[in-house]
Amino acid sequence: MKAVVITKSGRPEVLEVKERPIPRIGDHEVLLKVHAAGVNRPDIFQRKGNYSAPSGVSKDIPGLEAAGMVERVGAAVTQWKPGDKVCCLVAGGAYAEFVAVDENLCLPVPENFSYAEAAGLPETIFTVWDNVFRRGGLKKGDGILVHGGAGGIGSATIQLAKAFGAKVFTTVSTTDKELFCKKLGADVIINYKNDDFMECLSGETVNVVLDSIGGAYFEKHIDLLADDGKLIQINAMQGAKVDVNLMKIMHKRIVLTGSTLRARQLDFKKQLAQDVFNYVWPLIGKRYKQHIYAELSFDHAPTAHKMMEQGEVLGKLILVP
Ligand SMILES: NC(=O)c1ccc[n+]([C@@H]2O[C@H](COP(=O)([O-])OP(=O)(O)OC[C@H]3O[C@@H](n4cnc5c(N)ncnc54)[C@H](OP(=O)(O)O)[C@@H]3O)[C@@H](O)[C@H]2O)c1
Questions:
Q1: Domain housing 99
Q2: pLDDT-based confidence at residue 56 (cuts at 50, 70, 90)
Q3: What pTM was computed for the model?
Q4: Which of the two residues, 55 and 105, has the higher pLDDT score?
Q5: How do residues 1-18 score in pLDDT, each as one tens digit?
Q6: Which among 60, 90, 105, 264 is placed 20 to 30 Å from 274, CA to CA?
């Protein structure tokens, strides 16, 4: 099969289409014929050599999510049969013509969704559901701040938080992204190139912050959060080492947490998939729209990574074999 391979750590050009063997499937796995794979920021960290795949997962084929048709099923598979259309969460290997995936990490392609639209759902929705709703306990009437509202995680957070009745604050770097987040339903959108989000949000109640920036934002988040607020780190793009004023944490009873999805155990992911199917899948296509910025063929994977690194993407980028 053809796959996009990280030939060595480095710039986007290290991604090359190569021949690789079709993955073998275990008893509980399905072999998916990939029609589309989502591009996520962690793929870029992997390409640069800063985010290696967990054991048992392809080390050099990136890609955390895909959609396609079930080609073959393992002996113990009960939920799917060849010909079914599914999208799935994988810990790597989705930039390929075929990927092997546990049957419980597959969800049906939502009605009226293309493969490209469905391929961009799992990684962001699983991450947002786990962090914002399970870990962060976001509920109706709460306020949430998410940075990078126009990105994959940002656009998923805005739509899900709105669907569950929260007030959403977000940051962006351009007017186009500002308009995009408005359409997604964000209540307050701050262009952080022009304005300080702390000043813009004074007087607002922020119960949850979903942050992938870290660094200098950390202290601002502690100051911004309401009593019993939750700061959830899913990355630290501007620095993972920060000064913490423990008195502030104590006085406001702030919960500081975070997670990374990729390395979690299969049982955890299975349960998360079930939650996503029960609570989020009914909203897809109704309260939750998928916005595809561009679909590129596998041989344009370097271009896709460049587009994401340059910050031009609104919504999701998709690769097609
Ligand atoms: N922990 C996990 O399990 C997990 C899972 C998936 C993703 N993630 C992380 O979540 C983050 C988002 O991933 P993604 O796939 O959604 O990437 P993405 O589509 O590229 O979105 C990232 C967004 O961050 C914004 N940004 C960059 N610097 C910023 C700053 N200083 N202030 C505010 N916004 C800033 C960018 O918007 P502007 O260009 O407008 O600044 C961009 O829209 C990444 O850091 C990724 O590693 C974590």
A1: 2-121+290-320
A2: confident
A3: 0.97
A4: 105
A5: 999 999 999 999 999 999
A6: 60
pLDDT class for 301, splitting at 50, 70, 90? very high
Closest C-alpha to ligand 1, atom 37: 148
277 lies in some domain: no
> Ligand 1 center to residue 71 CA distance, Å?
33
Q: Within this chain, do residues 70 and 43 fall inside the same structural domain, yes or no?
A: yes
CATH number for the domain including 159?
A: 3.40.50.720
Residue of 48, 147, 238, 265 to test ligand 1 pocket, by largest number of atoms within 8 Å of CB: 147
| 279 part of a folded domain | no
Distance 247 CA to ligand 1 centre (A): 29
- 183: which residues sit within 8 A by CB, 6+ positions away? none
Going from the C-alpha of 24 to that of each of 20, 31, 40, 101, 319, the distances in angstroms are 12, 8, 25, 10, 23
Q: Are residues 208 and 303 in the same domain?
A: no
Domain match, 115 and 144 both: no
Helical H segments across 132-238, by residue range: 152-163, 175-184, 197-200, 217-224
